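Worked Example 4.2. Consider the chain below.
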Amino acid sequence: MDVLDKAVEHFETFGVRQIAVEEWDTTIYCTPFTLAEKKKLLKFAREDDIEFLARTLMLKALDKNGEALFDLSDKPKLMHKVDPTVITRIVNEISNAPSVEEQLGN
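Applying the procedure from the previous section yields the following structure tokens:
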């Protein structure tokens, strides 16, 4: 097994994480960011922090079946009718990479 295969195998161990959102009486699921996803979001982070939050939520928030909870058509409501504190907390949790201890299962 070469180094790239080991790197891919390592990334696959991260799996799906759950985020409890009590304010919405729901659980959001997410997978770790890939470089491609980070690239897609980076332009929004540079231009507009708030847009970045909404785009991250649309890209990464999944239901228990792995389906996206939000899409671009939901952006106006997310931007104007949803508590920004809750969105910020969710995106922060989505963005937190697992620690080395968590990755090792300790």
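The chain has a mean pLDDT of 90. Helices lie at 3-12, 35-47, 49-60, 75-80, 84-95, 100-103. Compare this with Example 4.1 before moving on.
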